[in-house]
Specification:
By secondary structure, the chain is α/β, with parallel strands linked by helices. The chain has helices at residues 3-6, 25-37, 48-53, 56-63, 79-86, 97-104, 111-119, 133-137, 139-150, 176-188; strands at residues 14-19, 41-46, 89-95, 125-129, 154-155, 159-162, 168-172. Helix content is 45%, strand content 18%.
Length: 193
């Protein structure tokens, strides 16, 4: 199998994958599968919007673990903190305009944004945006991306191509292999860079 040698930085690494409510959420399944094939241990957190597009059972099967969805799950009120403490990196795939805005504002009203806030700047955070090209070009979205980049978040994509809504433009999620490579690169960098 090629993946472990190609992405050696991922072997035995603890990764949290946050899946949000874009039509590109189905691509997150391929990313989780590739991360696991590379030897990473993966835990998935999903927004409710993401769970309407791709079932949590898909990610449970691919990750081998229960999916984190409910910020107020009985008996697990601090799951977001434990998940953030466990993570060596966090990947948000796809990163919608909404989750980018909420992360930039420091909001934590779902499992994905709560993990992002709890992880602070202790581990790499990688965002893989996917949205309509007009949304991506919006100055508010670009401002929020700038805020997150200023905090050290890495972005992979978006790329130019056909979009689910029939448009063609900059807003398509980066290829799954490119997303995985971005996570590996973030983990390979020395701390603080």
């Amino acid at each position: 199998m090629e993946e472990p040698a190609r992405w050696a930085e991922l072997a035995r690494r603890r990764l949290v994958v946050g899946v949000t409510g874009s039509i590109a959420a189905y691509k997150a399944a391929g990313v989780v599968s590739r991360l696991r094939q590379a030897g990473a241990e993966v835990r998935v957190a999903m927004t409710e919007a993401a769970a309407r597009l791709v079932t949590p059972a898909t990610f449970e099967a691919l990750s081998g673990h229960a999916v984190y969805r409910d910020l107020f799950a009985p008996g697990d009120a601090l799951a977001h903190v434990r998940l953030a403490d466990w993570a060596e990196a966090v990947l948000v795939v796809p990163a919608t305009a909404d989750v980018i805005a909420r992360a930039a504002a420091g909001m934590a009203d779902d499992m994905v944004t709560a993990v992002l806030l709890a992880v602070a700047r202790r581990v790499p955070v990688i965002m893989a945006p996917a949205m309509n090209s007009h949304m991506w070009d919006n100055p508010l979205v670009q401002r929020n991306v700038g805020v997150l980049k200023g905090l050290g978040y890495a972005f992979v994509g978006p790329v130019y191509g056909p979009l689910a809504d029939g448009y063609e433009g900059l807003g398509r999620m980066a290829a799954e292999d490119d997303v995985v490579a971005a996570v590996a690169a973030a983990l390979a960098r020395p701390a603080g860079i």
